[in-house]
Design a protein that fits this description.
mainly alpha; Growth Hormone, Chain: A; 3 domains; about 75% helix; globular; disordered C terminus; transport; MFS_dom; MFS family permease; transmembrane helix; MFS
């Protein structure tokens, strides 16, 4: 990172701030994963169709993808602390609206506000270097990054249990309690952080980028289910291309770009974003695949377990992600900035290959998913640290936000790809379909290894471009 004001050393106050940031990140991310497993239950609770109820999930993802880069830039412009303390009450209000919603329309309205929670993570990462020592910064960034992957697994695991034991509104009250606790801790303990002057927002570029990523997400998730699906997919794809071309043109011409086309041309940046997309695809793809395989009957080489047991198969992987993510900081300190990303991708590939090559028994599925989850957690935590290292202080939140969007789009591609492979014959997936799906996850993680090796070494990644004359 570029030189910044002196940072407060890690102490009791720093630990409290980090705890608040972790809780805020977890509470803001859970709504993106808790809704998916209970779409049918949501439809029943609000007396509507599954197609209408699915918008309770889609709108969260769409708003998150559309606004995360802009929120990251707002943090660079007005200060991450100020923007975070304004954002958390808005997300909390969205959770409260959803909790009290009398109709599906009110529920979706609440989900719109919840989607803004996608910006919490990049703001938390931008704040972290100001409240912990340089030695502990990588571990804290790794912990915050791990919360994203952990929230996906945790949300999938607990959503059904919460609905069965408390009711559908628990899906809003639990994240509300977490984010309220985290926000209160941050508000009380987080010190003032001087904001950078001279940072501005290119509004047309921000709108173009948001439209582009939303069009990509709709093409992958909703358009295939609309009437005349090929036409809608084509239109969404064309809108995405046009918006991204316009955004890149604005970025090149703007004196203060949203992300910076020059930054995207740096190998350390674009390789990090591409690796994030691939790891996101592997994570979401495996979280779609494993429960379906576990529930499949034995004559299709499945595990023939109940829906609850299938969900619990993801528990060890979820715990592993939470446990090993912060270790990325230790690996980085000993082996360099790129090492956690490469090692994480290699471990994830080993886990996915185990699921392809070994007999898919309960033990091998557990071991394979644990390796896959642990590798993805280490790799994604390493990616955040790479971007913190190479970004200027006034672009840290923007760089992290763009990486989050890459991971979300990759996740959508991975989930859609696995779903397509499993339903290619419009029948219940059989042994051949499961084998192809597990192989696809292995190919994705293998590509992540290749992309991670494109990230420059620590010495190259930290090099700064020299200012141009004049």
């Amino acid at each position: 990172m570029a030189a910044s004001p002196p940072r407060e050393r890690t102490g009791a106050r720093g630990v409290a701030v980090v705890t608040g940031l972790v809780l805020a990140t977890l509470g803001a991310t859970l709504p993106q994963s808790m809704t998916a497993p209970v779409i049918s239950l949501t439809a029943d609770a609000y007396d509507t169709t599954a197609a209408d109820a699915s918008w309770a999930l889609t709108v969260v993802l769409v708003i998150a993808v559309a606004t995360t880069p802009v929120i990251g830039r707002l943090g660079d412009r007005f200060g991450a602390r100020r923007v975070l303390l304004m954002l958390l009450p808005i997300v909390g209000a969205g959770l409260a609206v959803a909790a009290f919603s009398p109709t599906i329309g009110w529920l979706i309205a609440g989900r719109v506000l919840q989607g803004l929670g996608g910006g919490v993570f990049p703001l938390a990462v931008a704040i972290a270097p100001h409240v912990v020592s340089e030695r502990r910064r990588a571990a804290v960034v790794g912990l915050l990054t791990t919360m994203l992957a952990f929230a996906i697994g945790f949300g999938v695991l607990v959503s059904g249990l919460l609905v069965d034991s408390i009711g559908i509104r628990a899906l809003s009250w639990v994240p509300f309690a977490i984010i309220a606790t985290g926000g209160l801790i941050v508000a009380v303990t987080l010190p003032h952080i001087p904001r950078r002057k001279g940072v501005h927002i290119d509004v047309p570029a921000a709108l173009a980028l948001s439209i582009g990523v939303v069009a990509v997400l709709l093409a992958l998730t909703e358009a295939p289910r609309w009437p005349i699906a090929p036409l809608w997919i084509t239109l969404c794809g064309a809108a995405a291309v046009a918006s991204v071309v316009f955004w890149l043109r604005r970025e090149r011409l703007s004196p203060d770009p949203l992300v910076g086309a020059h930054a995207l041309r740096r190998r350390s940046v674009w390789a990090s974003h591409l690796t994030a997309a691939l790891l996101g695809a592997a994570l979401l793809g495996s979280f779609v695949l494993v429960p379906v395989f576990a529930e499949a009957p034995w004559w299709h080489e499945g595990l023939s377990v109940t829906v609850t047991a299938a969900g619990l198969l993801l528990l060890p992987a979820t715990v592993a992600m939470l446990a090993v993510g912060p270790l990325a900081g230790v690996v980085r300190r000993w082996l360099g900035t790129r090492a956690p990303v490469v090692i994480g991708a290699v471990i994830a590939t080993a886990g996915s290959l185990l699921l392809v090559l070994a007999t898919r028994s309960l033990i091998t599925v557990l071991l394979g998913t644990v390796l896959l989850g642990a590798g993805i957690a280490i790799g994604t935590a390493g990616l955040s640290n790479v971007l913190v290292d190479v970004a200027d202080d006034e672009h840290v939140a923007s760089a992290i936000a763009f990486n989050v969007v890459a991971r979300q789009i990759g996740g959508a591609v991975g989930a859609a790809g696995i779903a397509t492979v499993l339903s290619v014959d419009e029948r219940a997936p059989d042994a051949e379909a499961f084998g192809a799906a597990f192989l696809l996850v292995a190919v994705i993680t293998g590509l992540a290894v290749v992309c991670s090796l494109l990230i420059p070494s620590a010495r190259v990644a930290r090099a700064r471009p020299q200012p141009r004359a004049g």
